[in-house]
Amino acid sequence: MTIIITVNWEKYHCPKCDFARPKLDYAVTNVHLDRGISLRMEGRQFRIKSHGFYNVYNILAAYAAARTAGFYLERFDQVLRRHKTQNGRMELFDIGGRHVGLNLAKNPAGFNQNISAVLEDKSPKDLIVVINDKAQDGKDISWLWDVDFDRFHDPRVQTFIASGIRALDMQLRFKYADIPSKVEEDVTKAIERLVTGGTGNLYVLCNYTALYNTHLILKKLEEGKSMKLTIGHLYPELLNLYGDRGNIICMVQRLKWRGIDAVVREFDLNDKIDFSKLDIVLLGGGSDREQLLVCNRLKKLKKTLLIM
Fold it and tell me: Within 10 A of 81 (CB to CB), how many other CB atoms are there?
């Protein structure tokens, strides 16, 4: 069975033969994209708190598949209203009454779709673009020159900030599009600046490795509290031969880069340890004598460790 679905195809036909657009099984009409998506299917109007015209196609595809499978979808409108995007894919945040939208933009095609989604919002707005060049992103970011940033010549986009490891490259790209911008390599500071002093309507576009860290920063700001981990460093006076304090230093710093606070608690051999209050436990390396002492101590903690 072939299912024909469409959003905005025009009707077409050949005047000399019977070639024409197939009869539609499912179609979308009455589409509105300001501060979300509103659309009509089979005489019913639906609304979802999401952005981007491509999501109209996603909704129609899901609806058509379910209807074809025999579902009546009486509560489809409730499903859409309750839907909340996750993992930074056009995810929305409310930070002290300010609207913040986060999305992934890792190539020219995706970035141009993001530009369309941002411009669909007709209200005043600010924009942060976060560009990294880590291994997963690729060191070559010349693809930024294939993005149509000129489309941001819109008075409703009031502030542009370039951020991330390659913030200066992003600012240069803005310059050649005749877009005045500021640089703030620290993503947290960039977001806080526009959340507190911007239009109250912020969009943050990130490439691959920048997305996860930015997502954590926004979650932290939305919840009004910091994410914190407690690291238990067991018996560092005995197990310290292989740079284990360096492991702690690196772990704490990497958590900090991702917007996560960390507290390190060191425990001596005779200290009582409540493992339920530790998120991460580190044991270093030591000589045979020290390892034996620690092993005997851990045997006494066997029941506690098994419960954990």
Answer: 13
14 Cβ neighbours under 8 A, 6+ residues apart: 20
For residue 100, the cross-strand partners are 93, 202
DSSP string covering 96-117: TTEEEEEEE--SHHHHHHHHHH
Q: How much is the average pLDDT of 284-292?
A: 87
H or E element that contains 48 = strand 44-48
Taking Cα atoms as reference points, which of 76, 68, 54 lies closest to residue 8? 54
CB 40 within 8 A of CB 46: yes
Q: Predicted confidence band at 226 (pLDDT cuts at 50, 70, 90)? A: low
Q: What are phi and psi of 182, to 5 degrees?
A: -120, 160
Alpha carbon 301 to its chain centroid, in Å, reads 41
Amino acid found at 291 = Q
- Tell me how far the alpha carbon of residue 50 is from its chain's centroid: 14
CA dist., res. 225 & res. 223, Å (int): 5
Sign of CA dihedral 28, 32, 38, 43: negative
Q: Within 3-83, where are the H helices?
A: 54-68, 76-82
Report how far residue 28's alpha carbon sits from residue 6's, in angstroms, rounded to the nearest whole number. 7
Q: Please, which residues bridge with residue 13 across strands? A: 20
Beta bridge partners of 280: 231
Q: How far apart are CA 129 and CA 145, in angstroms?
A: 14
Q: Bin 42: left if φ > 0, else alpha if -120 < ψ < 50, else beta.
A: left
pLDDT on residue 85: 75
**Nearest Cα residue to 128 out of 207, 216, 223:** 207
Q: Say how many Å lie between the first and final Cα of the chain, rounded.
A: 54
**pLDDT tens-digit profile of 183-204?**
999 999 999 999 988 999 999 9
